[in-house]
Amino acid sequence: MNKIVGCGLASGLIAGVVTFAYTRWQIAPLVEQAVGFEEARSHAEQTLTGEHAHEHEVFTRVVQENVGAGTGIVAYGLIVGALFAVAFWMLTAFLARRRIAADPRWVSMTLAAAGFVAVTLVPFMVLPANPPGVGHEDSAGARTAGYLAALVASVLLAAVATVVAARLIPRIGRWPSVMLAGWGYVLAVCLLTAALPRFDEVPTPLLDTSGAVVFPGFPAALLADFRADSLTAAALMWAVLGTAFSMLLHRTSDRKVAYADR
Asked: In terms of residue numbers, what domain contains 53?
């Protein structure tokens, strides 16, 4: 178990570093554009209302983009890596009890793919990531609660689907069981998405008293690029995590993991 957790932490560290590099290269420029829009819109609103506010950054933009973002992403990678290792250990033990043979590398990559879908993709479908300048402070609590609800429900549904598939394999075969459980998960996710609240908080054009546009709405292309790159970064983290974990586990083990008729 200690060896598995060690592989998970090392894999999470690698995944975090790689993801931060991608984020710094691809997403940071989009954040800069979004911050520029937010500041310009705030100035336009102050001009319309005659109010003036002065805000001072506690940390400089450079510190936030490098130290803050880097520390956060790497720490997240370590946490996910540790949880991934525990999930891998539990899954292999479950497969052993069900006498289902599977290669550890296959289990690792499948678990990473399932983690991306359950932990990242489904909550993202319900509440996609927003850049600076999109969203209201008043609804921040509701958005966070909705995201956590989607995350917990998605993970639980994925766990139930895994158990159902494993129990059906001896009766109807491997692929029919996987397909049936998979489609059941998709249906449950669709119902979940329809039940949770939606938030449409993209800034619209700013109008003066005569109805003339004095400042445009948030650029649609910028929003789409930010969300697409955010999802890509998450997919990259899970892919690197699964690949690194399977390679490290294979290299540091002189014997096979005890499971599945081994």
From this structure: 1-116+128-133+210-262
| 3-state SS class at 213 | strand
Q: How far apart are CA 91 and CA 113, in angstroms?
A: 14
Distances (CA, A) of 169 to 67, 130, 155, 175: 48, 41, 21, 8
Q: What is the DSSP letter of 209?
A: T
The answer to whether residue 123 sits within a structural domain is no
Number of domains, the chain = 2
Q: How many helices (H) and strands (E) does the chain have?
A: 9, 2
In this structure, the answer to whether residues 32 and 97 fall within a common structural domain is: yes
Give which of 129, 130, 126 is closest to 37, Cα–Cα: 130
Output the pTM of the full model: 0.82
d(CA 223, CA 228): 9
pLDDT tens sequence for the chain (262 residues): 778 888 899 999 999 999 999 999 899 899 889 888 888 887 877 777 666 555 555 445 554 555 667 788 999 999 999 999 999 998 888 777 777 777 788 889 999 999 999 999 999 988 888 888 787 777 778 888 888 999 999 999 999 998 888 888 888 887 888 899 999 999 999 998 888 888 877 887 887 777 777 778 888 899 999 999 999 999 999 999 999 999 888 776 644 544 444 4
Residue at 121 is within a domain: no
Of 11, 90, 83, nearest to 248 by C-alpha is 11
CB-based contact 101:166 (threshold 8 Å): no
